[in-house]
């Protein structure tokens, strides 16, 4: 009898390098104006740029918390989160490339979350799918 082996699968392919020992978010940079975007774009979204050619770029793994809120209730369908639900932070993180990225904040104590704090990228479980696989996404945790 073959037992199915659960595996870790990304919530969306192409958001971050996976599998990877040190995952990184995958964005794009305009070859003409240098604007950086996340998630990846097929063309530059800067209205002042006329060339619009972009290339993939791996984004930095550390940034500063620009803003945040606390999610006190389970997200509505189709979004999923592990059960039992516990409140969590959602932050806007500014990366060295100048782009601001929204993501879940991982911290044991919501009172530890402070604007301006240093955070780092991690890949962590979001939920388990119907096949028992661990669906993972990028999150940010405080740098100690």
Summarize the structure.
The chain is mostly beta strands and 144 residues long. It has no helices and nine strands. The N and C termini lie far apart (46 Å).
Can you walk through the features of this model?
With 144 residues, this protein is mostly beta strands. It has a domain at 61-142: OB fold (Dihydrolipoamide Acetyltransferase, E2P). It is 0% helix and 40% strand. It contains no helices and 9 strands. It has strands at residues 8-10, 26-30, 36-37, 54-58, 62-71, 88-94, 100-105, 118-128, 134-142. The strands form 2 sheets. The protein has a 5-stranded mixed barrel with strand order 5-6-7-9-8. It has a 3-stranded antiparallel sheet with strand order 3-2-4, with no helix packed on it. The radius of gyration is 17 Å and the shape is globular. The chain starts with 7 loop residues before the first strand and ends with a strand.
Attribute tags:
single chain; 144 residues; mainly beta; OB fold (Dihydrolipoamide Acetyltransferase, E2P); 9 strands; globular
Taking all Cα atoms into account, the compactness measure Rg is 17 Å
Number of helices: 0
Instruction: Indicate the overall shape.
Output: globular
**Ends: how far apart?**
46 Å
Spans with pLDDT under 50 lasting ≥5 residues? none
Got a strand count?
9
The helix content, as a percent range, equals under 10%
Strand order of the largest sheet: 5-6-7-9-8
Topology:
Blueprint (H helix, E strand, L loop, with lengths): L7 E3 L15 E5 L5 E2 L16 E5 L3 E10 L16 E7 L5 E6 L12 E11 L5 E9 L2
Parallel strand pairs: 1-9, 7-9
Antiparallel strand pairs: 2-3, 2-4, 5-6, 5-8, 6-7, 8-9
